[in-house]
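ENTRY TYPE: paired fold submission
RECORD: A
CONTENT: sequence, then structure tokens
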Amino acid sequence: MIIIYYDNIIVMANLRDRLKRIQESKKENDQKINYTQSEEIKELIDLGWEPCGYKVYKRDVTFMPPFKSNKKLPKAISILIPDLYGIELPALNDFLFFDLETTGLSGGAGTVAFLAAFGKIANNEKLNLVITQYLLLDYPGENDFLLNVLSELNGNYTVVSYNGKCFDSQIIRTRCLMNRIKVPEYRHVDLLHPSRRLWKNIIQDCSQSSVEEKILNLSRTDDVPGSLAPEIWFEFLKTGMTDRLKGICDHNTSDIFGLASILSVIISIVENPVNSKYQFDHERFALFWRKFLKRSKDDSCDNNLIKTGNDLLRLSAQNNKPRAVYIYAYDQMKNGNYNESLKYVNIALKLFDEESVWHEKLLRRKTRLERMIKFFG
């Protein structure tokens, strides 16, 4: 309730109810104009868009998916995606790929989502990536737009995004809060973090577009940059012209396809990291794998996982990666392979600066190993 003091008179007003009445009044007036019959909106209808609420349109677009089959994920996927650790791993058609286009790139209460895309793997006669998009035509339709978005985020799927935990999902929560709509709970996987684990030391910039271009070799011909999304939507509100708006809608579907492609590559790397055709930071991944094995010690950790982790660490050590060499030498000593351990201690001594604390530790370890080799033979 708002209390306004005017000439010693207290006026009680419910701001929410007043705003709701204003919104409903604007809806009635706009409906009299028959907005959906404008030439610009007919262009959207010709492209497969159809009304699904007040000032909200929807369309479905189908792509060939980057996946070969609808299989369950490998157990080691949780090394890169901790959100999947300790649960029954989903199949590919249990994922919901999610991306937003908004009126601002910094978040905040004034930022509105005007375009949302959801991709699902449909397993009919053949696999398809079906992308459903929702387009907001003007601010008064935001309530219906959000309800459509939340109908997808219903908890039946594991949501997959790129930086969506920090941005997209927060935008949705903020706008729902301002529209008095409850947000359902859902499991959320953010591919930004596994991408950084695999490629940060290779390409530095781990934005989705960089990963697609430099790791996956995906090129987007005539793509409209996502940074232009706010400008394009505001231009549409002002002029009603849909030419550039169609471009940002296509960019939105490309984001979903790119998101599915990144997940496909991550799965491929996890399934066979030693012989993967994709480049990634072997040392960093090997150390994450080793940490995963230690954490899963009391769980059902099969021998294949252990062997793959050891092979990956050894491969990194053979490539003279300092941390991998140091840890591999330690593991070999712990397992009683003293000659192998001494070999990699000597390699590590050349990799670490003589002034570093690691160099001193390695010298002590070398002395200890030489005594053990002499004693045990």
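RECORD: B
CONTENT: sequence, then structure tokens
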Amino acid sequence: MNQEPATANPAPPAANPAPPAADPNPPAVGPGPAAVNPASAPPPAQPPAPTPVAPPLGVFGDPIPAPAPAPAPAARRRTRLVVGSVALVVALLAGGITYAAMNLGGDKGEGGNTSSGSTDGPRQPDGTEEAAGDPRQDDEDTSSGPAPSASIEGSIAEEYLGTWQGQGKDSDGDVRSLRRITITQGVEGEDVATTFNSFEDVLCIGAGKLVSFGNLMVLESRSVTSIPESGCSDGGEQTLRLGDDGSITWTSGDGRETAILKKTEPSDTPIPDDFLGTWEREGTDAGTSMSLVLKQGAYGDVVAEWTGDGAAYHCEWESVAVDATSTGVRLGPAIVTVAEPEDECENGNTETLRLKSGDVMTVTMLGDDQPPATYRRKD
């Protein structure tokens, strides 16, 4: 589910101010034509004829073959032979019509022959007809059939679907990341997860392909977006297993990090209103200033804009929303958008914001030994 931060060491901080700081707190049957079989019907009476005639087929079967030509009779028998042949044909036609009428009328409403001349296929236990390979079966009403099974819709148990979040910890119990994963339905080989993993100095957004699903779920994740660029690598295989308490235990492929994930409901407006607005940093040196404008936005959206000014520099940064609760906000690494001069500004780390009061807020940068900076509301 995750992508790991790339192992390259971050560049050393520039001499001039970096952005503010923060500390850590995802079928009916398609009818097919079938001939009516007359074998079971009693054969019509046949007067003797010099040449045998094949028995007739039903009216919806193959055409009745013409009688084979009789050998030239003696002149004295011609009249009698013609009369006899005509009588035979009339009798055959009458017998065939009577047989068809009996079949068409007698089976009506009993699942027998239909007016189109087809026969019903074998019945399923639920009363629907067995598929006969007719391409029209997709257009038939199948509402009376059984509900689709999980194997048709996907491989993943319903209990795993949704968005999950928790802290990733190493074997010593130290927090290494904030992990969020959204699982959707799918089958092996398909992307079924999006991942959102926040580390001290990088934010990794990725996708997870389903490798297998049984007693647990195996994903193979890859990096899609890295903030800053080139900061993340593919996470490889990892496992997720649902516990009796409803939580999911996530484990990295190498087993060095685990996370207990709880189901959550992401919001498009997660940042509390009390954090929104313009803030200025206190205690800056004379002739310098640092300000923050915080606006509403979903996770992954740019919500923070920082501006730092001094006599010989002007820097601007932006940060995306990572997480928010009623008491705190977590932002992704601050990324330089304007640098004057170019070498005077550098990217910052992940930051956390906490309210001390309605007008006072602290900003802590993860991985920074400096105490939190204090900001006061300006608007």
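NOTES ON RECORD B: Residues 78-106 form the longest helix (29 residues). The chain has three domains: 15-26+153-264, 38-130, 273-377.
STATUS: closed
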